[in-house]
Amino acid sequence: MPSHAAARRPGGRSGRVLAAIHASVGELMGEGADKITFPVIAERAGVNPTTLYRRWSNVNALLEEVAVAALTRDGESAPDTGSLERDLTEWADIIARDITRPERVRYLRAMLAARVEAVSHCPVTETRRDQAAEMVRRARERGEPTPTASQILDHVIAPLYHHVVFALRVDHEYARRLVRDVLAMVR
Amino acid sequence: MPSHAAARRPGGRSGRVLAAIHASVGELMGEGADKITFPVIAERAGVNPTTLYRRWSNVNALLEEVAVAALTRDGESAPDTGSLERDLTEWADIIARDITRPERVRYLRAMLAARVEAVSHCPVTETRRDQAAEMVRRARERGEPTPTASQILDHVIAPLYHHVVFALRVDHEYARRLVRDVLAMVR
């Protein structure tokens, strides 16, 4: 069986095994599967369940890993237009378009459902913080007044995610309004 | 059986039947019950399942109703201290304390899990908007510069809920910082 072969030879194949596991979790989430367990994922991915039990402490840890990977991999460099307002507007637009895609909404909900304990570190948020800090750094070098990266997270990113998670409307105009507001704090 | 009596006599008993249904849903959510279906709720509440099928189009509609009721019923009048900054600070503190209680977090997650379709109207948000509008109205009468109620929702309420939903830290200092930021927009 291919599952046993994959489990027995983690070396050169581990990348492909991991990709198959991630893809299977993604498929199951996309199908709105009711019960996503290690055996269900293992069957779909064609790997031995012990591979999963060995690598992740529980299924929620795996679901979060997949959700974070899906939510942070695309279009991830911060815009560099020469003005903080344009950078932030473009960035907020990209994020708004991205997180409102139905498959992203499903991932986001799956990640939040998996996250029952308080976390001190959220990889999705940290990626956005790094991008915000980069845009702020460039704006300061140009001598523009800038909010902090934390303020950009609180007042642009948080409301966008809040609207998506609460199933409220998110559009271009909303993203722009948030950017105008956060810049008004430092005017 | 009491269930049949309740179902047959909706008049004087309908309030008590509704309360029993809400309480049962609350108990099941609190227990982290895996499958909350109409038959499960009906059994717990001691009512006939047809009562539920007749009143709610599906179980998610009932879960959302219960979650909204739980999230909006307590401590719901907006503070009136004579200054918008103090009003907002007190209000943000009350909300931060309320929505971080473990049973509230569970309700919030249950509500979001039930909300799979986009909504144009979110009763939790509308309650907060009414309170914000009331504080803004009083501040304007006193001649204070004020953000709009929408800005208060976007920049105080949204980040608080975002942190709770993402299981990030929410405390008094965070609530205060959000209020200072939204007031800085109009200074």
From TrEMBL, chains A, B:
Residues 37-56 bind DNA. Gene3D superfamilies: Homeodomain-like, Tetracycline Repressor, domain 2. Transmembrane segments: none annotated. Residues 14-74 form the HTH tetR-type domain. Keywords: DNA-binding, Transcription, Transcription regulation. It comes from the Bacteria. InterPro entries: Homeodomain-like_sf, HTH-type_TetR-like_transc_reg, HTH_TetR, Tet_transcr_reg_TetR-rel_C_sf, TetR_C. It holds the Pfam family TetR_N. PROSITE patterns: HTH_TETR_2 (PS50977). This is TetR/AcrR family transcriptional regulator. The lineage of its organism: Bacteria, Bacillati, Actinomycetota, Actinomycetes, Kitasatosporales.
